[in-house]
Design brief:
With about 140 residues, this protein is an alpha/beta fold. The chain contains 5 helices and 5 strands. The chain has helices spanning about 20-25, 30-40, 55-60, 80-90, 130-140; strands at about 1-10, 45-50, 70-75, 95-100, 120-125.
Length: about 140
């Protein structure tokens, strides 16, 4: 059975409460429970959220040998973090970048992802379903 880490960056702990017109009202606790149930016979899913860049980097480093892939929403760090980009580049664990909203349909400063060039792929704009699509891409 494959093992996948869903890794979320800053402010995603507020999912379901923050900007609900953009991000919806479902919390990550609710959504990851749904995903775990959906993939119970195929994939073990772990979840980690941190507002601290170094903790995200440590999770990426620790993924080697423990996870078959990472579904990663770096939040605002997507557009600014060379350190997260370097961490993804430094490990063999495939990383799929995901975003709940389309970063290309938002403010101009959000249009550039530092992570996309080193990720296996990027999925955005499908709401929380972006995470399911990220998992599917790592399963297949």
């Amino acid at each position: 059975m494959k093992k996948i880490l869903i890794l979320n960056g800053p402010n995603l702990n507020l999912q379901g409460k923050r900007d609900t017109n953009i991000y919806g009202t479902t919390t990550f606790e609710e959504y990851t429970a749904q995903l775990s149930q959906r993939y119970a016979n195929k994939v073990e899913i772990d979840y980690l959220q941190s507002n601290i860049e170094g903790e995200l980097i440590n999770a990426i480093h620790a993924s080697v040998g423990h996870y078959d892939g990472i579904v990663f929403n770096a939040g605002g760090y997507t557009h600014t973090s060379v350190a997260l980009r370097d961490a993804i580049s430094a490990v063999s664990t495939p990383v799929v970048e995901v975003h709940i909203s389309s970063i290309l349909a938002r403010e101009e400063f959000r249009h550039i992802s530092m992570l996309a060039p080193v990720a296996k792929g990027s999925i955005m704009g499908f709401g929380l379903d972006s995470y399911r699509l990220g998992i599917e891409s790592l399963i297949d």
